[in-house]
Amino acid sequence: MTSDALLSGLSCPVIPVVVIEEIDHAIPLAEALFSGGIAALEITLRTDLGLEAISRIKAQFPEKPVGAGTVCNPEQFGDAARAGADFIVSPGATSALLSTASNYSLPFLPGAVTASEVLCAMDKGFNTVKFFPAETSGGAAALRALSGPFPSVSFMPTGGITRENLGAYLRLQNVVAAGGSWLTPRALCVAQQWEQIQQLASDTANLSRALKSEVSQ
Ligand code: 3PG
Confidence band (pLDDT; 50, 70, 90) for 216? Predict the structure, then answer.
């Protein structure tokens, strides 16, 4: 499956970018997000617990797409694949990472924000990219501009996205999904406030579906 097919088929086009600091938080956090209507997660490898969290969440919710994020080198790519990740996300791209990804059938979203970076991704056959860090890289205006030379490229912006600016991104034709950490505030995770996270997820799922349906009309 391509990244675009995976992301465009999601019932909710918002993907929480998750940092796991306690392994026992992985299941209740995933449960809160899925119960609220979130369709897919990106578990970052920013902590040593990321891979174990992916395995546990996949065992508990086998039908839900769970990706590995902050995958920065070929070794991490292989680790994430073995942990059971359904898709792989990188904040940028190197030729080593792009070559490794070409050897796997897993959907891969390399990071790209400039025209040259988009071209490098396309050159290796990756037409869906992570646009990171979105807000400081020109935001929705930059994505609109990139749609001119790259009509076949889809973007997943992350970095600085909030409930308030989500609409500016999801209304764009070339944005297939958006991601970020605002659904999993660290303070709520530390305090294990899963109900509040479920409410945030539910609010965002409803909002994002309404925004995306405006685009398809
Ligand atoms: C990511 O890796 O996508 C970002 O760290 C998410 O950015 P945010 O924390 O600003 O949402």
Answer: low
Instruction: Give nearest CA residue, ligand 1 atom 11.
Output: 180
Which of 17, 46, 113 has the most ligand 1 atoms within 8 A of CB, as the residue to mutate? Answer: 17
Average pLDDT over residues 97-122: 97
Q: Which atom of ligand 1 is nearest to the CA of 132?
A: 3
Out of 21, 22, 31, 42, the active site residue is 42
pTM exceeds 0.90: yes
Domains and CATH numbers, the chain: 3-216 (3.20.20.70)
Query: Whole-angstrom Cα distance, residue 84 to residue 10?
Result: 19
**pLDDT of 1:** 87
Q: For residue range 187-208, list pLDDT tens digits in order.
A: 999 999 999 999 999 999 999 9
130 is catalytic: yes
Catalytic-residue membership of 135: no
Instruction: Please give the Cα distance from 166 to 153 (Å, whole number).
Output: 20
Distance 1 CA to ligand 1 centre (A): 25
Distance of CA 107 to the CA centre of its chain: 12
Is residue 67 within 8 Å of residue 16, measured between CB atoms? no
pLDDT in tens, 31-60: 999 999 999 999 999 999 999 999 999 999
